[in-house]
Amino acid sequence: MARGGIPASPLPPRQGVDAQRYRMPQGGPWRTLRDHLVERLAAGLSADEVDRMLREGEFVDASGRPVPADAAFVPRSVVWAHRDLPTEPPLAEDVVVRHRDERLVVVDKPHDMATMPRGDHVAGSALARARVVTGLDRLAPAHRLDRPTAGVLLLTTEQRWRGAYQSLFAQGRVHKEYLAVAPVRDDLELPLVRRTRLLKEHGVHQAREVPGEPNADTLVELLEQCDGLGLYRLTPRTGRTHQLRAQLSGLGIPIVGDPLYPVDRTPPPGTVRDAETPALQLVSAVLAFDDPVDGTPRRFTTRRSLSTWPPRREDD
């Protein structure tokens, strides 16, 4: 069973993407399943396309049997089907598997790749690509990285392991280190611990530092500096949305290549970053924890680098 008692899909993923689950409402005016699907899917599928999918057996029941084209509408019943995948921006890089065992797969995610299928990033998401690369259809992420952030991402191989590893992240029992390139402020005494209250409102791209009890805590260390830029190690002790990006921006040292902080310059959906524009110079460098299943110390590190470090000199 999937989380919350929802049965696993009877259809295997397609290009690493799960089939969509449709649960019928408790009642309604529809005589047939087809009538309900035509109304329900009108925003994305024509009636002719729904008819074609039913005719060709693309809607299946929980056992994987094709649903007849004239099937009656049954309240609270469930059907599954794959939807056409959106046209996506081409992948500049793919995930790279760094570790694989019975319970875990760890990949190095490139910049500009979503962790989960979403919007214009579905088959090109890290989850879908990791499933294709490994052949493991039930992979699921134990945590998430922002789409612009690169680095180590941990996935579980099966549902039975998922809760234990997701709980590590939810309970703050994972040691995480990031590397970032950002400007250097001579008047900023480092290392420091940045403790602020972050507010991320629904529908608003940016998180904001606001007055109140701190809920975001990050150790900021300057490792190296060159030509006005620094290589920073960031060790978050909490896991708020956009925590590192918002807090460094609040310190007056926004991360190089950030399209969101301090000013929202988020490109339109489907836009591909041009070669002259650096990716967000932030990478998830280290994940370390005691394994919740057998207690073994685990430590995974990235091999990805930051393209603007060290800075290029004028005569390079």
TrEMBL record:
Protein name, as recorded: RNA pseudouridylate synthase
Region span, Disordered: 1-28, 293-316
Matches recorded under PANTHER family: MITOCHONDRIAL RNA PSEUDOURIDINE SYNTHASE (PTHR21600), PSEUDOURIDINE SYNTHASE RSUA_RLUA-LIKE DOMAIN-CONTAINING PROTEIN (PTHR21600:SF84)
Transmembrane intervals: none
GO molecular function: catalytic activity, acting on RNA; pseudouridine synthase activity; RNA binding
Pfam families referenced in this protein's UniProt entry, alphabetically: PseudoU_synth_2
GO biological process: enzyme-directed rRNA pseudouridine synthesis
Lineage of source species: Bacteria, Bacillati, Actinomycetota, Actinomycetes, Micrococcales
Reaction(s) catalysed by this chain's protein: a uridine in RNA = a pseudouridine in RNA
InterPro entries in the record: PsdUridine_synth_cat_dom_sf, PsdUridine_synth_RsuA/RluA, RluA_PseudoU_synthase
